[in-house]
Design a protein that fits this description.
This protein is α+β, with helices and mostly antiparallel strands and 317 residues long. It has a single domain, classed as 2,3-Dihydroxybiphenyl 1,2-Dioxygenase, domain 1. 15% of the residues lie in helices and 37% in strands. It is built from five helices and 22 strands. The longest helix is centred in the C-terminal third of the chain and has 13 residues. The protein is globular and about 60 Å long.
């Protein structure tokens, strides 16, 4: 087993790279590279790319996670079904090992991808809370337009065999449960998984696996600066007539303030901010599955399973 250090990116296929790039720019990403057959989009942090779209029939291919060291690639390459260590012949370079999960999603474990200069974040202001005044003499004046995504934060996979998928990701990549969710019989049927970095605080979850009749992408989530960014991004995407999925609200498990949208392929992408951070001093939680995906405030759980449109209405290019 190795211990991955973060989510790196997700890989998709789409028949129209222009359409995908237009949406992702409005969603808050920026182009880092593009070839005749693939699009690489970045966030404001230094990662070279956080989203890859290859030219082809609509498809979610799979997620990529960072290895701590190149030696981890050698270790993983010896696992059943894993590829050899490969040079990544794409913008950003680096090396990887590929392995398929129980549902056939191609998981990439990567190391050595080039980094880029950080992009300054607009519309960032200190908050004045009732008991913590942090902004004095500075006026909040927000510039309208696309919100900026800071990084890719987590991925949710709909899986056909939860126990097999849970074991695969934990046993191969070192994920640990922040919260496990039980049905009425007390059986754990899905889990919120975080990175294992010991005493270091990490996101409540980087990976969530949820049982479903058909394997698919649940959603891909991007962190934004604050609640202003959530609402500014919502208003911009709404003005461009993109298709909204669920939000705005605050989750229970993970506590993120969230807003979900559909991309041109009908996949869900999320803006989130203000999530919980945990380390290994925090005990695992157990929560009834029928309330685990509810909200503390905002758009209720009854609206979360919005119908995925065959073709979301697109913005004007």
């Amino acid at each position: 087993m190795i211990k991955v250090t973060d989510l790196a990116y997700a890989r998709f296929q789409a028949p129209d790279l222009d359409e995908m790039e237009t949406f992702l720019k409005h969603f808050g990403l920026a182009r880092s590279a593009r070839t005749e057959t693939a699009l690489y989009m970045r966030a404001t942090d230094k990662d070279h790319h956080v989203h890859i779209t290859e030219l082809g029939e609509p498809k979610f291919i799979g997620p990529a996670f960072y290895a701590a060291d190149e030696s981890d690639l050698d270790i993983l390459s010896k696992s059943p079904g894993a590829s050899n260590v490969e040079e990544i012949n794409e913008p950003g370079g680096g090396k990887r090992v590929r392995i398929k999960d129980p549902d056939g999603f191609e998981v990439e474990i990567v190391h050595g991808i080039a980094s880029l200069e950080h992009i300054p974040v607009r519309n960032s202001y200190k908050t004045n809370n009732g008991s913590n005044i942090r902004r004095k003499g500075e006026l909040v004046r927000l510039e309208p337009g696309p919100v900026q995504c800071k990084r890719v934060g987590h991925i949710v996979l709909n899986v056909t065999n939860f126990n097999a998928s849970d074991a695969f990701y934990k046993n191969n990549f070192g994920f640990i449960s922040s919260d496990e969710c039980q049905d009425k019989e007390g059986e754990t049927i899905f889990a919120f998984n975080r990175l294992d970095k010991g005493k270091k605080y990490v996101d409540h979850h980087t990976l969530l696996t949820v049982p479903a009749d058909e394997a698919s992408l649940g959603h891909l989530a991007f962190e934004v600066e604050d609640i202003n960014a959530i609402y500014m991004g919502h208003e911009h995407l709404k003005s461009m007539r993109y298709h909204h999925s669920w939000g705005i609200g605050r989750h229970i498990l993970g506590s993120q303030i969230f807003d979900y949208w559909f991309d041109p392929l009908g996949f869900r992408v999320e803006h989130w901010t203000d999530g919980d951070l945990l380390n290994n001093d925090i005990p695992m939680g157990n929560t009834p599955a029928d309330t685990a995906l509810d909200v503390q405030w905002g758009a209720g759980a009854e609206t979360r399973i919005a119908k995925i449109p065959k073709k979301p209405r697109m913005a004007n290019k």
